[in-house]
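Pasting two entries for a bug report.
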Amino acid sequence: MKLIVAAAFAAILLALGLAGRAMLRDGRRGEPKTNRMVRALAWRVGISVALFVFILLSYKLGWIQPTGLPR
């Protein structure tokens, strides 16, 4: 379970980095802008929503349990 969440966070950060790279590189030297940044951000949002739904579904199916805060 932790591996899946860590992989999703890594994918989110990768998509964010790709969007930043596309933002800095597109449209330089008179080249037309592409949709690479928009696609990367759309992937980031999609992965984030999928991770949220996966965590909620895992809780409902009993795969994960809340531990609460120690007192």
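Entry 2 (this is the one that rendered wrong in the viewer):
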Amino acid sequence: MENTVLRDGEQLLNATDVAHFLNISRAMAYRLMQHGKIRTVSIGTAKRVRIKDLRNFVENNLSPMSEV
């Protein structure tokens, strides 16, 4: 994974990195980013995702625990 690192050490991920992180296709990662499901940072025409926004996406999409 080759990604951008901000001054504070925070990484910005591209769609391929997001796809690997979530174990989904790159096309699905692009769709989630384009539709605003995953918050993005715009750098010119490029879209990048902060790790903390990706983790928030995962947390916000957890299914409720079922009681057995």
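Dev reply: Rendering is fixed now. As a check, the viewer should reflect this: The chain has one domain: 4-58.
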